[in-house]
Amino acid sequence: MLLVAGLLAAIYFQRHRLRVGPAIGAVGLIGCLYISPFCALGSALFAVRIVHDVVLVSVLAPLVVAALRLERLAIHGSLVGWTVIHVLTFWLWHAPPFYEAAMSSDATFWAMQVSIVATASLWWVKVFRAPAPAAATVLLATMVAMGSLGALLTFAHRALYAPHWLTTQDWGLSPLEDQQIAGIIMWAPGSLVYLLAALTIVYRSLGTRAATI
User: Fold this and answer.
1) How far apart (Å, rounded) are the C-alpha atoms in residues 207 and 24?
2) Which of these, 5, 107, 119, 159, lies nearest to 168 by C-alpha position?
3) What is d(CA 140, CA 157) in angstroms, rounded to the nearest whole number?
4) Does the pLDDT of residue 3 top 50, yes or no?
5) Mean pLDDT, residues 13-24 taken together
6) For the whole model, what pTM was predicted?
7) Which one of 45, 77, 90, 151 has the minimum C-beta count within 10 Å?
8) Is the pLDDT of residue 82 over 60?
9) Where are the alpha helices (DSSP H) in 94-174?
10) Using alpha carbons only, what angle is made at residue 69 by residues 66 and 74, rounded to the nearest 5 degrees?
């Protein structure tokens, strides 16, 4: 609660530099992800942790960009390069050894959270600044990459994540079933976010082009 109160105070005193609506939305989402029982549930169920991490990259990161007006920044590096960084960061932290390290250490956990949000935010800046065809292309490529991770989790023949081997039974799930649900979440609704963003960008581009004819 102190974290949320501090962020709200910062928004009030820096409101002339921020977009207040997205900033309040980001703080509310942070409160839901890290203060509510949702966060503790993510320690028990890998499926909930995947929902948490998908929300970080697809909702919180764009809100951070909007709130801080980061879309005005000229980020060094190519759009493709930042797409690779964004995807690899997400994949790396969900490789079983790195995930286990994050779940067993507060410092590593916060390094995971900050790096995922930071790289996703910078990637969204590049997407927002890119021409519509390029932006739509990398969004679709990211959709495929995230969906591939979801497919790997869904079709794995054994439970891969040791932190959840003994925590799922109270919820009526085996560790493998929990992992399969997590994979389906990443494969379907998690990937859908990128598809919707690509379609929105293409639609707006076509609307702008039609208006200039």
Assistant:
1) 30
2) 159
3) 28
4) no
5) 74
6) 0.89
7) 77
8) yes
9) 96-104, 106-129, 132-155
10) 120
